[in-house]
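Two proteins were folded this term; both appear here.
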Amino acid sequence: MKLFFLCLMALAYVAAGAYHFINPMFYKKIMPPWLPAHHTLIYISGVCEVVLGIMLIPEATRQIGAWGIIVLLIAVFPANIQMMINFWNRNNPYLWIAIARLPLQAVLIWWAWLYTR
Protein backbone atom coordinates (compact mmCIF):
# COMPACT_ATOMS: atom_id res chain seq x y z
CA MET A 1 0.00 0.00 0.00
CA LYS A 2 2.89 2.37 0.81
CA LEU A 3 4.26 1.82 -2.72
CA PHE A 4 0.86 2.68 -4.22
CA PHE A 5 0.73 6.01 -2.36
CA LEU A 6 4.34 6.73 -3.28
CA CYS A 7 3.55 6.22 -6.97
CA LEU A 8 0.38 8.29 -6.61
CA MET A 9 2.33 11.15 -5.05
CA ALA A 10 5.04 10.97 -7.71
CA LEU A 11 2.45 11.00 -10.49
CA ALA A 12 0.56 13.89 -8.89
CA TYR A 13 3.67 16.07 -8.69
CA VAL A 14 4.80 15.24 -12.22
CA ALA A 15 1.31 16.02 -13.55
CA ALA A 16 1.02 19.24 -11.52
CA GLY A 17 4.47 20.31 -12.66
CA ALA A 18 3.63 19.63 -16.29
CA TYR A 19 0.46 21.69 -15.91
CA HIS A 20 2.64 24.73 -15.16
CA PHE A 21 3.71 24.58 -18.82
CA ILE A 22 0.31 23.63 -20.24
CA ASN A 23 -1.62 26.41 -18.50
CA PRO A 24 0.74 28.91 -16.84
CA MET A 25 -2.03 31.51 -16.61
CA PHE A 26 -3.80 29.32 -14.04
CA TYR A 27 -0.81 29.85 -11.74
CA LYS A 28 -0.26 33.49 -12.71
CA LYS A 29 -3.68 34.33 -11.24
CA ILE A 30 -2.59 33.17 -7.79
CA MET A 31 0.91 34.63 -7.77
CA PRO A 32 1.32 37.14 -4.95
CA PRO A 33 1.80 40.58 -6.49
CA TRP A 34 4.92 41.25 -4.40
CA LEU A 35 6.84 38.42 -6.08
CA PRO A 36 8.93 39.33 -9.12
CA ALA A 37 9.16 37.47 -12.45
CA HIS A 38 5.87 35.59 -12.22
CA HIS A 39 6.31 33.56 -15.40
CA THR A 40 9.85 32.57 -14.49
CA LEU A 41 8.76 31.45 -11.03
CA ILE A 42 5.85 29.49 -12.50
CA TYR A 43 8.20 27.60 -14.83
CA ILE A 44 10.81 27.05 -12.12
CA SER A 45 8.21 25.63 -9.74
CA GLY A 46 6.87 23.42 -12.54
CA VAL A 47 10.34 22.02 -13.24
CA CYS A 48 10.86 21.47 -9.51
CA GLU A 49 7.58 19.56 -9.19
CA VAL A 50 8.40 17.31 -12.15
CA VAL A 51 11.98 16.63 -11.01
CA LEU A 52 11.04 16.06 -7.38
CA GLY A 53 8.15 13.81 -8.36
CA ILE A 54 10.51 11.70 -10.46
CA MET A 55 13.05 11.65 -7.62
CA LEU A 56 10.50 9.91 -5.40
CA ILE A 57 10.63 6.73 -7.48
CA PRO A 58 14.23 5.48 -7.07
CA GLU A 59 15.13 4.63 -3.49
CA ALA A 60 18.49 6.35 -3.94
CA THR A 61 16.86 9.77 -4.45
CA ARG A 62 13.58 9.30 -2.55
CA GLN A 63 14.62 11.07 0.66
CA ILE A 64 16.01 14.09 -1.19
CA GLY A 65 12.91 14.22 -3.38
CA ALA A 66 10.59 14.06 -0.38
CA TRP A 67 12.49 16.80 1.48
CA GLY A 68 12.48 18.87 -1.71
CA ILE A 69 8.71 18.51 -1.95
CA ILE A 70 8.34 19.67 1.65
CA VAL A 71 10.45 22.75 0.92
CA LEU A 72 8.49 23.39 -2.28
CA LEU A 73 5.14 23.13 -0.48
CA ILE A 74 6.31 25.69 2.05
CA ALA A 75 7.65 27.96 -0.71
CA VAL A 76 4.38 27.96 -2.67
CA PHE A 77 2.17 28.49 0.39
CA PRO A 78 1.94 32.25 -0.27
CA ALA A 79 0.26 31.43 -3.62
CA ASN A 80 -2.41 29.47 -1.75
CA ILE A 81 -2.98 32.43 0.55
CA GLN A 82 -3.14 34.74 -2.49
CA MET A 83 -5.73 32.44 -4.08
CA MET A 84 -7.88 32.68 -0.96
CA ILE A 85 -7.53 36.49 -0.93
CA ASN A 86 -8.46 36.68 -4.61
CA PHE A 87 -11.52 34.48 -4.10
CA TRP A 88 -12.54 36.54 -1.05
CA ASN A 89 -12.20 39.85 -2.93
CA ARG A 90 -14.25 38.57 -5.87
CA ASN A 91 -16.93 36.91 -3.73
CA ASN A 92 -16.08 33.69 -5.54
CA PRO A 93 -18.52 30.91 -4.56
CA TYR A 94 -15.56 28.51 -4.41
CA LEU A 95 -13.88 30.43 -1.61
CA TRP A 96 -14.36 27.38 0.59
CA ILE A 97 -12.01 25.40 -1.70
CA ALA A 98 -9.31 28.05 -1.39
CA ILE A 99 -9.71 28.02 2.39
CA ALA A 100 -9.60 24.20 2.51
CA ARG A 101 -6.36 24.22 0.51
CA LEU A 102 -4.53 25.95 3.35
CA PRO A 103 -4.63 23.09 5.90
CA LEU A 104 -4.31 20.61 3.02
CA GLN A 105 -0.73 21.86 2.65
CA ALA A 106 0.02 20.38 6.09
CA VAL A 107 -1.41 17.04 4.98
CA LEU A 108 0.71 17.10 1.81
CA ILE A 109 3.81 17.95 3.87
CA TRP A 110 3.06 15.04 6.21
CA TRP A 111 2.57 12.71 3.23
CA ALA A 112 5.96 13.70 1.78
CA TRP A 113 7.57 13.44 5.21
CA LEU A 114 6.58 9.75 5.32
CA TYR A 115 9.17 9.16 2.59
CA THR A 116 12.01 11.11 4.20
CA ARG A 117 13.12 8.13 6.28
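Next, the second protein.
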Amino acid sequence: MLARHGQTAWSHDGRYQGQSDPPLSAAGMLDAEALAASLRRVSLGVIVSSPLQRARQTAAILVRMLGLTEAEIDPDLTEISYGAWEGLTQPVVKRYWPDLLRAWKRAPETVHFPGGEALSDMQSRIRRCLPIYTARAARTPVLLITHSIWIRLALIESRVLPPSDFRRLPIPTGSLHALRTGFVHPCPQPKEQISCVSQ
Protein backbone atom coordinates (compact mmCIF):
# COMPACT_ATOMS: atom_id res chain seq x y z
CA MET A 1 0.00 0.00 0.00
CA LEU A 2 0.95 3.60 -0.53
CA ALA A 3 -0.09 6.52 1.66
CA ARG A 4 0.40 10.23 1.24
CA HIS A 5 1.68 12.16 4.24
CA GLY A 6 -0.57 14.49 6.24
CA GLN A 7 -1.24 18.11 5.42
CA THR A 8 1.30 20.89 5.90
CA ALA A 9 0.84 24.65 5.90
CA TRP A 10 2.37 24.66 2.41
CA SER A 11 0.00 22.06 0.98
CA HIS A 12 -2.93 23.92 2.57
CA ASP A 13 -1.77 27.14 0.87
CA GLY A 14 -1.19 25.43 -2.49
CA ARG A 15 2.59 25.85 -2.43
CA TYR A 16 4.83 23.49 -4.35
CA GLN A 17 6.64 21.45 -1.69
CA GLY A 18 8.84 19.01 -3.55
CA GLN A 19 11.97 18.26 -1.55
CA SER A 20 11.55 21.25 0.77
CA ASP A 21 10.84 20.13 4.31
CA PRO A 22 7.87 21.80 6.02
CA PRO A 23 6.46 19.89 9.02
CA LEU A 24 2.93 18.59 9.45
CA SER A 25 0.38 21.18 10.47
CA ALA A 26 -2.18 20.51 13.20
CA ALA A 27 -4.56 19.41 10.44
CA GLY A 28 -1.83 17.13 9.08
CA MET A 29 -1.51 15.40 12.42
CA LEU A 30 -5.24 14.76 12.33
CA ASP A 31 -4.80 13.35 8.81
CA ALA A 32 -2.20 10.92 10.15
CA GLU A 33 -4.38 9.92 13.11
CA ALA A 34 -7.34 9.28 10.78
CA LEU A 35 -5.08 7.23 8.53
CA ALA A 36 -3.89 5.16 11.49
CA ALA A 37 -7.48 4.59 12.63
CA SER A 38 -8.43 3.32 9.16
CA LEU A 39 -5.51 0.88 9.21
CA ARG A 40 -6.42 -0.82 12.49
CA ARG A 41 -8.22 -3.54 10.48
CA VAL A 42 -5.11 -4.17 8.34
CA SER A 43 -2.29 -6.39 9.57
CA LEU A 44 0.71 -4.22 8.76
CA GLY A 45 4.19 -5.64 9.07
CA VAL A 46 6.45 -2.79 7.95
CA ILE A 47 6.16 0.97 7.47
CA VAL A 48 8.73 2.64 5.24
CA SER A 49 8.87 6.43 4.97
CA SER A 50 10.30 9.10 2.75
CA PRO A 51 13.04 10.98 4.65
CA LEU A 52 11.14 14.26 4.38
CA GLN A 53 9.79 15.53 7.70
CA ARG A 54 6.10 15.51 6.73
CA ALA A 55 6.32 11.82 5.79
CA ARG A 56 8.42 10.85 8.82
CA GLN A 57 6.00 12.59 11.19
CA THR A 58 3.06 10.80 9.55
CA ALA A 59 4.87 7.48 9.89
CA ALA A 60 5.69 8.16 13.55
CA ILE A 61 2.02 8.76 14.36
CA LEU A 62 1.07 5.49 12.62
CA VAL A 63 3.79 3.60 14.48
CA ARG A 64 2.62 4.97 17.83
CA MET A 65 -1.09 4.40 17.25
CA LEU A 66 -0.71 0.95 15.66
CA GLY A 67 1.98 -0.34 18.01
CA LEU A 68 4.48 -1.08 15.25
CA THR A 69 8.26 -0.98 15.20
CA GLU A 70 9.95 2.24 14.15
CA ALA A 71 9.50 3.11 10.47
CA GLU A 72 12.33 2.50 8.04
CA ILE A 73 13.55 5.46 5.96
CA ASP A 74 14.17 5.16 2.22
CA PRO A 75 15.49 8.13 0.18
CA ASP A 76 13.96 6.59 -2.95
CA LEU A 77 10.51 7.54 -1.58
CA THR A 78 11.38 11.26 -1.69
CA GLU A 79 9.11 13.61 -3.65
CA ILE A 80 10.16 15.12 -6.95
CA SER A 81 12.31 18.26 -6.73
CA TYR A 82 10.44 21.27 -8.09
CA GLY A 83 13.65 23.31 -7.88
CA ALA A 84 12.96 27.06 -8.14
CA TRP A 85 9.20 26.47 -7.85
CA GLU A 86 9.40 25.17 -4.28
CA GLY A 87 7.64 27.38 -1.77
CA LEU A 88 5.76 29.23 -4.52
CA THR A 89 2.05 29.18 -5.27
CA GLN A 90 0.73 28.46 -8.73
CA PRO A 91 -0.16 32.12 -9.47
CA VAL A 92 3.45 33.13 -8.75
CA VAL A 93 4.81 30.31 -10.91
CA LYS A 94 2.45 31.36 -13.70
CA ARG A 95 3.85 34.90 -13.57
CA TYR A 96 7.47 33.80 -14.05
CA TRP A 97 7.22 30.48 -15.93
CA PRO A 98 3.90 30.59 -17.86
CA ASP A 99 5.02 28.29 -20.68
CA LEU A 100 6.59 25.74 -18.35
CA LEU A 101 3.51 25.70 -16.12
CA ARG A 102 1.32 25.15 -19.19
CA ALA A 103 3.52 22.24 -20.21
CA TRP A 104 3.37 20.81 -16.67
CA LYS A 105 -0.43 20.85 -16.88
CA ARG A 106 -0.70 19.45 -20.40
CA ALA A 107 2.39 17.28 -20.98
CA PRO A 108 4.11 16.72 -17.61
CA GLU A 109 6.54 14.16 -19.02
CA THR A 110 8.18 16.95 -21.07
CA VAL A 111 9.01 19.19 -18.10
CA HIS A 112 12.32 19.57 -16.28
CA PHE A 113 11.85 21.94 -13.35
CA PRO A 114 14.39 24.81 -13.19
CA GLY A 115 17.05 23.70 -10.75
CA GLY A 116 15.03 20.56 -10.04
CA GLU A 117 14.09 17.22 -11.60
CA ALA A 118 12.02 15.71 -14.38
CA LEU A 119 9.44 12.95 -13.97
CA SER A 120 11.99 10.55 -15.44
CA ASP A 121 14.25 11.15 -12.41
CA MET A 122 11.50 10.04 -10.06
CA GLN A 123 10.59 7.12 -12.32
CA SER A 124 14.16 5.86 -11.92
CA ARG A 125 13.76 5.87 -8.13
CA ILE A 126 10.40 4.13 -8.34
CA ARG A 127 11.66 1.45 -10.72
CA ARG A 128 14.63 0.85 -8.44
CA CYS A 129 12.61 0.31 -5.27
CA LEU A 130 9.21 -1.08 -6.30
CA PRO A 131 10.53 -4.59 -7.07
CA ILE A 132 12.24 -4.65 -3.67
CA TYR A 133 9.07 -3.75 -1.80
CA THR A 134 6.96 -6.05 -3.94
CA ALA A 135 9.19 -8.96 -2.88
CA ARG A 136 9.00 -7.89 0.77
CA ALA A 137 5.21 -7.51 0.57
CA ALA A 138 4.95 -11.15 -0.45
CA ARG A 139 6.22 -12.00 3.06
CA THR A 140 4.64 -9.22 5.16
CA PRO A 141 2.30 -6.30 4.37
CA VAL A 142 4.25 -3.12 3.57
CA LEU A 143 3.02 0.48 3.78
CA LEU A 144 5.05 3.18 2.04
CA ILE A 145 4.56 6.75 3.32
CA THR A 146 5.39 9.02 0.43
CA HIS A 147 4.18 11.93 -1.73
CA SER A 148 1.57 12.80 -4.35
CA ILE A 149 3.71 12.73 -7.51
CA TRP A 150 5.49 9.57 -6.30
CA ILE A 151 2.12 7.85 -5.79
CA ARG A 152 0.79 8.89 -9.19
CA LEU A 153 3.87 7.57 -10.97
CA ALA A 154 3.91 4.35 -8.93
CA LEU A 155 0.27 3.66 -9.85
CA ILE A 156 1.14 4.20 -13.51
CA GLU A 157 4.30 2.10 -13.24
CA SER A 158 2.35 -0.78 -11.68
CA ARG A 159 -0.30 -0.48 -14.42
CA VAL A 160 -3.08 0.46 -12.06
CA LEU A 161 -3.45 3.57 -14.26
CA PRO A 162 -2.52 4.50 -17.84
CA PRO A 163 -0.02 7.38 -18.23
CA SER A 164 -2.84 9.63 -19.47
CA ASP A 165 -4.39 9.48 -15.98
CA PHE A 166 -1.43 11.22 -14.31
CA ARG A 167 -3.48 14.39 -13.79
CA ARG A 168 -6.84 12.73 -13.15
CA LEU A 169 -6.24 10.93 -9.88
CA PRO A 170 -6.69 13.00 -6.71
CA ILE A 171 -4.12 12.23 -4.01
CA PRO A 172 -5.41 14.03 -0.90
CA THR A 173 -3.31 14.16 2.24
CA GLY A 174 -3.69 11.05 4.37
CA SER A 175 -5.03 8.96 1.47
CA LEU A 176 -4.32 5.26 0.82
CA HIS A 177 -3.70 3.65 -2.57
CA ALA A 178 -3.21 0.00 -3.57
CA LEU A 179 -0.96 -1.36 -6.32
CA ARG A 180 -1.51 -4.38 -8.57
CA THR A 181 1.45 -6.17 -7.05
CA GLY A 182 2.26 -7.83 -3.76
CA PHE A 183 1.19 -4.55 -2.13
CA VAL A 184 -2.48 -5.14 -2.83
CA HIS A 185 -4.55 -5.14 0.36
CA PRO A 186 -7.91 -3.60 1.29
CA CYS A 187 -7.45 0.16 1.54
CA PRO A 188 -10.06 1.61 3.90
CA GLN A 189 -10.23 5.38 3.68
CA PRO A 190 -10.45 7.69 6.69
CA LYS A 191 -14.02 8.88 7.21
CA GLU A 192 -12.94 12.50 6.94
CA GLN A 193 -10.05 13.65 4.81
CA ILE A 194 -8.74 17.17 4.48
CA SER A 195 -8.16 17.65 0.76
CA CYS A 196 -5.67 20.17 -0.55
CA VAL A 197 -4.12 21.21 -3.80
CA SER A 198 -1.84 18.33 -4.81
CA GLN A 199 1.61 19.82 -5.30
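The radius of gyration is 16 Å. Residues 182-199 have pLDDT under 50 and may be disordered. These notes refer to the second protein only.
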